[in-house]
Amino acid sequence: MIQIHTSKALAADLKAHLTEVPSGPGAMQWYAHRVYILRRKCVVAMEAQSRYAMVFTGLTKPDFEKFQQLFLDRLMREALSICQLDDEQSEHLAALVMLLGESVQISPGSDRSVQAHINDVARELDWMAHDIGYLPEQASHEFNFGLRVNQMLRKRKGDKDYFYPLEELRGFWLGLLGHVASRPDNVVPLH
């Protein structure tokens, strides 16, 4: 399960998809916020543990109507890109991402620590867009921007050391893939 917690600004755009659910203990937790950059709506979504950010730029009303699918598609593509696996392992990882994304819940909510990191990413996107004069509008360009911000050192409250979000999320996906691969064939996962 994936839970996306939205800021008040983004909740207004996703009101048709909002549900009131408590955080699930086994769910992947994401926080998302909408900002305006170059007078266009942009969304920064950040995974809570790794602080990995995905950026969506120039979103329109139809994009918000299919945001869950847009999010899942991007999550799968980015997971495959950052893990750089062979074809067989990539198929297994894609299946895991889709299994995790079978249930996507969007609800209002925030986390001050994650929001501070989201604000950093939004400022960086704003600075870059004003510097080059336009927003990255293709998914591959948004991913390339994300690569840059996900390779910047971050720190969570309570952590002793700094970390790179890209390496943290990559480690999560590879660990999940390894865990599933090491499970005996006769064990059926319970959901």
Question: Could you explain the architecture of this structure?
Answer:
This protein is of the alpha/beta class and 191 residues long. The chain has seven helices and five strands. The protein has helices at residues 8-13, 61-65, 67-83, 87-100, 112-132, 139-150, 165-182, and strands at residues 2-6, 28-37, 40-47, 53-56, 104-108. The chain has a five-stranded mixed beta sheet with strand order 4-3-2-1-5, sandwiched between helices. It is globular, with a radius of gyration of 17 Å.
Report the sheet with the most strands, covering strand number, pairing sense and barrel closure.
5 strands, mixed
- Name the overall outline: globular
Which band does the percent of strand residues land in? 15-25%
Measured as a percent range, the helix fraction is: 40-55%
Give the distance, in angstroms, between the N- and C-terminal Cα atoms: 10 Å
Radius of gyration of CA atoms, rounded to a whole number? 17 Å
Read across the widest sheet, the strand sequence of neighbours is 4-3-2-1-5
Say how many strands there are.
5
The helix-and-strand class reads alpha/beta
What do the pLDDT scores average to? 91
SSE string, helices as H and strands as E: EHEEEHHHEHHH
Task: Pick out the low-confidence regions.
Answer: none
Number of helices: 7
Describe the SSE topology.
Layout: E1 2-6, H1 8-13, E2 28-37, E3 40-47, E4 53-56, H2 61-65, H3 67-83, H4 87-100, E5 104-108, H5 112-132, H6 139-150, H7 165-182
Parallel strand pairs: 1-2, 1-5
Antiparallel strand pairs: 2-3, 3-4
Can you describe this structure in just a few lines?
This protein is an alpha/beta fold and 191 residues long.
